Amino acid sequence: MDDAAPKTRIQIRNRKVILTAGLEVFSANGFRGATLDQIAREAGLSKPNLLYYFPSKEAIYTALLDALLDTWLDPLRALDPTGDPITEILGYAQRKLALSRDFPRESRLFANEILQGAPMVRDLLKTDLKALVDDRAEVLQNWMDAGLIRRTDPVHLIFSIWSLTQHYADFDVQIRAVLDEEDPFPGAECFLDQLYRSLLEPRAR
Questions:
Q1: Is residue 194 in some structural domain?
Q2: Which residue, 68, 105, 122, 128, has most beta carbons within 10 Å?
Q3: Mind listing the pLDDT tens digit for each residue in 116-133?
């Protein structure tokens, strides 16, 4: 299908249906375990019809990852260098936690890609992601140098937010089993607020 050509409403709908089906199948089975037949069945389309929109399993997977990486980077992009440091860092952690709550399949898809060695997004990780992390780490370092937050490793601070928030999507079944199926996100939000305030607020506050 020619991506440059104007798309009809049916074509737009079918692409969305295929991507949604692909997300479901890839997040459950990983890239290697997923098949076009599974995706077509999940989408309610014939395999030839699916191939009209996407020429391969790789094309569907790549389209999903491209959109996902943008979504995953948006919360870090939103960290405002001119804002209050504690408010900005806590806001970033809460935005990342909200992604785990609202997009658990996307989180697992991304985690599976990374666990496989990031074959499809390695270049983006080394360019777009690294550049953004370097930039925001410099913002954090400037806040530390100004005494606005306590000193710690800025890059590992970002890593800790990734791990503490994404855990709630990737290990959802385990968490809910321990909590007797209680919704974990209100407690997680309160805990992250407490944790990062105690870590980052200057002692004089």
A1: yes
A2: 68
A3: 898 888 888 999 999 999
Please tell me whether residues 187 and 95 are part of one structural domain: yes
> Do 48 and 70 reside in the same domain of the chain?
no
Rounded CA-CA distance 34/58 in Å is 10
Residues 6+ positions from 27 with CB-CB distance below 8 Å: 105, 106, 108, 109, 112
Confidence of residue 27 (pLDDT cuts 50, 70, 90): confident
pLDDT class for 147, splitting at 50, 70, 90? very high
Question: Based on the domain organization, do 69 and 135 belong to the same domain?
Answer: yes
| Residues contacting 169, CB < 8 A, separation 6+ | 99, 100, 101, 103, 104, 107, 108
* pTM (predicted TM-score): 0.85
